[in-house]
Amino acid sequence: xxxxxxxxxxxxxxxxxxxxxxxxxxxxPEEGVDFQGxxxxxxxxxxxxxxxxxxxxGVKKVRFTGGEPLVRKxxxxxxxxxxxxxxxxxxHLTTNGLLFDxxxxxxxxxxxxGVNISLxxxxxxxxxxxxxxxxxxxxxxxxxxxxxMGFPRVKVNVVLMRGFNxxxxxxxxxxxxxxxxxxxxxxxxxxxxxxxxETGGHFASAESLVKQIETLYPGIQxxxxxxxxxxxxxxxxxxGKIAVxxxxxxxxxxxxxxIRVTADGNIRNCLYSDKEYSLRELIRSGCKDDEIADVxxxxxxxxxxxxxxxxxxSSAQRVAVEDIGRVSMTQIGG
Length: 334
Prior knowledge:
Structural class: alpha/beta
Keywords: 4Fe-4S, GTP-binding, Iron, Iron-sulfur, Lyase, Metal-binding, Molybdenum cofactor biosynthesis, Nucleotide-binding, S-adenosyl-L-methionine
Number of strands: 12
Mean pLDDT: 90
Catalytic activity: GTP + AH2 + S-adenosyl-L-methionine = (8S)-3',8-cyclo-7,8-dihydroguanosine 5'-triphosphate + 5'-deoxyadenosine + L-methionine + A + H(+)
Binding site for GTP: 13, 63, 94, 155, 258-260
Subunit structure: Monomer and homodimer.
Family: Belongs to the radical SAM superfamily. MoaA family.
Shape: globular
């Protein structure tokens, strides 16, 4: 599947729940958001049907996200079903790590090929400030467990914020010295439910992060990575890698290979687009697989050149605050 800009899509990110057991300040208000009822969230068989259709269209990689995907009790069944889908080569999961130990062995046995664990600070007090919950040691233990269990790919996602955790950059990069993991610094994005993003003071650009890494490790060399890992390095004496994801500056849009499905069954062809393409009611009306494929083709065909164009097109449609739509990353799929 290719769009009008020649980009091939082979990767789907599927949010399986809007719920999360953390309340990160850049994602969700402390009081939470109005989660949709269970009846509006895609059932596991509906999700697996979508994956089957996408696999026949050329999608090879699936990532389950949320909210926090491990709060969904059938997550292992979803992974097992995805792994068994002809054409799917890789099934990954992004988690905050709090429940990982409960599921780790079953996830490994189900064939999960990669796990990304989100962790924004190595300081216990800061962890409580950013997540509004306890649990730093549990997340660190989950990273160690994932490595010990030999998951093929283990990554640590760090949202780097000026004035909050930018001073921990070296502490995080040193994790890649002795461990076979990738530490990924992600630019702060404007999906914070109108909380701390509005000040504008926390943004640390990918360019500045790359410079800091090159200063810390003179002579560090570029390394192979995924298409979103626009800047990726590996030190001579490092077992793991260090990556910077320009999620806000959007310099990687030309390499985009993904599409998103929200927990309530809507396609989003770009993180910065408010436009959605509904699948849930179509599926529940008894449609044929070809009709599901047609909705994806339409979404692909209408994908903008980059995140700036998507944002511009979405903004043009807004005439009132209530038109902004989903304001929390947990509703979009992280």
